[in-house]
Specification:
Elements lengths: L16 E4 L1 H9 L6 H8 L4 E4 L1 H11 L8 H9 L6 E2 L17 H9 L4 E3 L3 H4 L9 E2 L1 H6 L5
Helix pairs in contact: 1-2
Length: about 150
């Protein structure tokens, strides 16, 4: 019997490794008393391990700079410091084949999920959910992802 690939995860091997899309992350980071508070608590306590790539981190930083959030540079740094140290970094040197997607900003999340052999891609994005039948990694809503965690 061969060993699983280095990024493969099983229920007994450790916490689930999830790709969290930008909207999910921003909701968890900016609204600490919101409906996704559990997610921030989950990565802080090691219940889940978020995956991050250069491209997905760049996208998160770009979105946190939106004027509508009114965040100062120090506030953005604090939010990133509450997330990035808990992430497993995945280098996506050669993007793997993924299904065609309508939004080019979705591609890095699909590529990260596949290259990092994530246990799930967690998103509320309907375009991404429409790709679930053609994608080898489960694409879950935050509520469906929460339901997979034991006794949370």
């Amino acid at each position: 019997m061969s060993d699983p690939p280095p990024h493969a995860s099983t229920a007994t091997e450790g916490p689930p490794r999830w790709v969290l899309d930008t909207n999910v992350l921003v909701s968890a980071l900016l609204f600490p008393a919101g409906r996704l508070t559990w997610l921030r608590d989950a990565w802080r306590s090691g219940i889940i391990v978020p995956l991050a790539s250069r491209e997905t981190t760049t996208e998160l930083i770009r979105v946190l700079c939106y004027p509508r959030f009114g965040l100062t540079p120090n506030e953005r740094e604090d939010l990133l410091a509450d997330h990035l140290p808990h992430c497993e970094s995945v280098v996506v040197s050669t993007p793997p084949p993924i299904p065609d997607c309508r939004d080019p900003f979705d591609r890095p999340f699909l590529e990260l999920a596949k290259a990092g052999q994530a246990d799930a891609l967690v998103t509320g994005d309907k375009d991404l959910h429409s790709l679930a039948p053609a994608f080898p990694i489960p694409i879950l809503t935050p509520a469906a992802a929460l339901a997979t965690l034991p006794a949370w």
